[in-house]
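Subject: sequence -> structure tokens, single chain

Hey, anyone have a minute? Need the predicted structure for the following. Not urgent.
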Amino acid sequence: MSICTLCPRSCGADRSIERGLCGADDMPRVAKIMLHQWEEPFISGTHGSGAVFFSGCNLGCIYCQNHEICKGDIGAYYDAKSLAKAYLKLQQDGAHNINLVTAAPYVPEVVESLKIAKMDGLTLPIVYNTSAYERVEAIQMLDGLVDIYLPDWKYVSPLLSDKFSNAPDYAEVATASIIEMYRQVGDLQLDENQIAKKGLIIRHMILPGCVDDSRKVLDEIVARLPVSTQISLMCQYTPQPHVTISPLNRRITQREYDRVISYALSVGLYNILIQEMDSAQSMFTPQFTDMI
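Reply:
Had a minute. Here:
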């Protein structure tokens, strides 16, 4: 991929000879493939979500819960045919869906792999699990191939997104990409077993000391999308050992979480998933020291 402009960074790397700012080169690198039990209940279900964790990330949050893989240094290389085989193996193993985690650096290859897998018998819903820091044009490439979009909506404040993710334009970019996601798949739909089959699910992880910005994120959702939009309000922020700056060096408090939940209800959102506070544990984060 020469002169890469796939994501909002538009770093211009020739990924056939060097890595982009996302840490990716010209072939998808996969850090882990697994039946993931710790997604939202209608994603993981009883058998698990067929998660494919891609290595590399174009956002690079300083507090990243999957920081081991965000630089693109871990995992094995997969071409489109190999990815398709991996999806089909997850289907054979009983996964409820195929969950593409942080695939943004590899959208063209992912598109090809999905087309191959569907021709070879893949029938599971496809989940696109993303930071939402993606160009609308990239999301449009996935139209008709992705059934469920699972984006983060991290910030509204450019000061926070610059400080924590080196992306002062995050809110503008994420808003546009999420609106396109909703245009493609609409509101969340569940099957007879209460497993997601189509639709948009917006995740928002509350960060310590950032309740005011969380409220603004919810305001943006109400302004841009129907109040029926499914929201996953996450309290699972877990401080990583390398993060020492305040307030990211602590977990959120029950009071902070309750304030965000109350505000969501007050602005009319009603399809809201909440977590138990003990979900903020590293045991719920996949380990990437070996491949499955």
